[in-house]
Amino acid sequence: GGTEDQGMVGGRHGMKLADALFLRLYGKGFVNDHSTRIGGGDANDEWRQARGGFRLDWEPSDASQLTFQGDLYGGGFHHTVSLPALVAPFATTEEQVGRVTGGNVLLRWKRQLAEGSDLQFQTYYDRTARDVLFYAETREAVDFELQHHFQLGERHDVTWGINHRLTRDDAYKQSFTVTLTPGSEGHHLSSFFLKDQIELVPDQLKLTLGAKVERNDYTGWSLQPSARLLWSPRPEHHLWAAVSRAVRTPSRAERTARVNLGAAAGPTVFAYFGSAEAGDERMVSYELGHRWQARPELSFDTALFYNRYSNLGTAETGAAFLEVAPA
Prior knowledge:
mainly beta; 14-stranded antiparallel β-sheet; 3-stranded antiparallel β-sheet; 1 helix
């Protein structure tokens, strides 16, 4: 406890329910006081949160493992915001109390198929809710993933998998400050990934090739490949190089949001508009590295990287226009 971090408390407990069946429980919470303004008085930024959860592990056999876990949380926070208005002085300062809640559950099953081969399936559900003065939304996600790892011959270590995620949001409270169109929307994200670690020279030279193919509802298909080379000329020296490509998909706000940033006499409104034309931002990364294991308890790492970005999103000034709806 303290004057600003007024209190933090947490507890954990683990138990054995039966042979190969184990349970862990936890709970924790905190309260942070308001900061103090230079001139005195509270800055209206107090916040607090409590959360709890569990994890259940079951090993029905030496070859199988099952995990089931979940979390719940809830909290509140104070906040001071400046909101645009159409009448003088064209802005209002509001103190608000916000609320955030959420929870998730996850199920993971892993099975050893043979020596050097295993299969894993995982699924989870996640829900968050946030409510502030000028905006409130709920957001849900359901995710499924299957991953298979196996040895191919004496030199190939292969991992592949598939994933599908469904997300849905509902902006059930909007305002003059922030709007999303439409107010509720759902999206699918699917991907396939493959990685092969190839031992070119035993204990000295390894090549890792991988790629992820992804499809989303906004921008369609994208390819994210990578190649990594690891050379160990001596047991204490390791040199590596990598080239990889990554993409960032535009968010819902970057495509469908309107945020009124300010207003002036006229009345004139200055607003940010998302664009349905927003595409993937792309990056190609080049990396070099060296690790020196000077002693068993001491190592030194050096890394160099160069990233090249393309198709970056920018905010551009548009032409003024007369808005008649709303008047």
